[in-house]
Amino acid sequence: MAAARLSQFGVQHVAKGIGRLTTEVIESGSGSYVSMVGGKRYLDFTVGIGVANLGHCHPKVTKAIQSQVGTLVHGQVNIAFQKPYLELIERLLPMMPHPSLDTFFFWNSGSEAVEAAVKLARHATKKQNIIVNFGPLVPGIFSVPFPYCAQCSIAQHAGGKFNYENCCMDPVTQLELLLKRETAPSDTAAIVIEPVLGEGGYVPAPKGYFDRVREICDKNNILLICDEVQSGFGRTGKMFAVEHYGVRPDILIMAKGIANGMPLSGIVSRKELMDKQPPGTMGGTYGGNAVACAAGVAVADAFKEEKILENVNARSKELRGMLEDLRKDPKVGSMIHDVRGLGLMLAVEFKPSPKGSIGSKVQAKCKEKGMLILTTSIYDTLRFIPALNISKEDMAYGCQILKEAIEEVAAGEDPQETQTKGQALE
Predict the structure, then answer these.
(1) pLDDT score for 424
(2) In 3-state terms, what secondary structure has residue 82?
(3) Which SUPFAM superfamilies does the record associate with it (predicted)?
């Protein structure tokens, strides 16, 4: 089919509930670029929403997948051990943020891994309730706010006194009150936290927050579950974002970048907890698929051999530096509310505009110029998720496109209106 016909076919027959950036059809990907049917090529700052962490069709990962397909496609985890599954555990053990995290269960997707973590927590503690920083909620699930200083009413009325480096820690107070008012510690199995909010706006936890939560968990016999579906596997400049905070999770959730595009996720905890589940408690038809695990082994090897974390931190300085420079630019800075993130999990949040979403306009401009970027689901925020092995040259190209797009959108805005509208929320 021609490009237009393929696109129309997709619109007609693919579920409408799936949101997407474009109705174009991706034909191939290589490194930091994707090519569409019809020939259009884009610099990809989305990499499958952080799934293709090492870029599209990484040669070593591709080779490992091809080799495994000819050996064993699927060795069902409830039947027997299979070699790639065990090899992946062997590679991951030294990467864990704490030596106590030594026992693994692999599944297919991030949501399933969260389900597995909740299931383990309830088995291990014999308690039902779970505290989260997100919704929607089901019975036995309670929500508390995440420390989001850029949108915190306390910070906004304190004249700059509170920020990510000096958080007011009101969310900790709210957590303590929740444990007194709604879900007693004796009923609470675990607290689930993303070290860096993903869909919530790419917001890193402020300094000291995790220490306080860890203290509350230890005091009340509650498990701390770190959801690193999006922030794990080098995305923040360390293998796992919780390493930035020096706190031990009881259960770690992982997915996305673990196998560079193959459907694989997992949880890891200490053997003492995992062994509380009797045989038959966990399983799943496709969990820990052999081909996906082989890809995960290749990903782990590439991190070490190709010095991926060093590249993440070098490219992060370049991207963040450009964003901070724009924030200081009098022609552009009036639109920008916040620049934040860790490693190559960065975001820029724009102030409200009477002319509509600034972020969506910048996103559209970037696409026109040949780069794909994404927004987040709250406030007017653009997130940047390039491949972790993106070259210096491609990062410079991406920064150039982004800078031009923001400047062009700013030229169509009224700085006074945008600034006034933004101040009304501050």
Answers:
(1) 40
(2) coil
(3) PLP-dependent transferases
Amino acid at 333: G
Average pLDDT, rounded, for the chain: 93
Vertex 348, ends 203 and 152: CA angle to 5°?
45
- Are 270 and 101 contacting, i.e. CB atoms less than 8 angstroms apart? yes
Number of other CB atoms surrounding residue 33 within 10 Å:
18
Q: Which two tokens stand for residue 31?
A: 């490194």
Strands (E), 109-213: 129-132, 141-143, 188-193
Percent of the chain at pLDDT > 90 equals 87
Q: Which of 69, 89, 85, 66 is nearest to 77 (CA)?
A: 85
Q: What is the pLDDT of residue 426?
A: 39
Q: Are 94 and 324 in contact (CB under 8 A)?
A: no
How far, in Å, CA of 256 to CA of 261, rounded? Answer: 7
Ramachandran assignment for 155, one of left (phi > 0), alpha (psi -120 to 50 degrees), beta (any other): alpha
3-57+308-424 and 72-305: identical CATH topology: no
Nearest to 399 by CA among 341, 316, 337: 316
- Domain 3-57+308-424 sits in CATH at 3.90.1150.10
Q: What is the value of pTM for the model shown?
A: 0.93
Please name the residue that has the structure tokens 């490693």: 343
For residues 328-345, give the mean pLDDT.
95
What CATH number labels 72-305?
3.40.640.10
Neighbouring residues of 8: CB distance < 8 A, sequence distance ≥ 6: none
Number of other residues whose CB lies within 10 A of the CB of residue 104: 20
CA-nearest of 235, 305, 233 to 265 is: 233
Would you list the domain boundaries of the chain? 3-57+308-424, 72-305
Separation in Å, CA 38 to CA 2, 41, 42, 55, 268: 7, 9, 12, 22, 43
> Burial letters for 126-159: b for 16+ Cβ neighbours within 10 Å, e otherwise?
ebebbbbbbeeeeeebbbbebbbbbbbeebeeee
Helix (H) or strand (E) holding 126: none
Average pLDDT over residues 139-145: 89
CB 317 within 8 A of CB 288: no
Alpha helices in 46-109 (DSSP H): 47-50, 59-69, 83-92
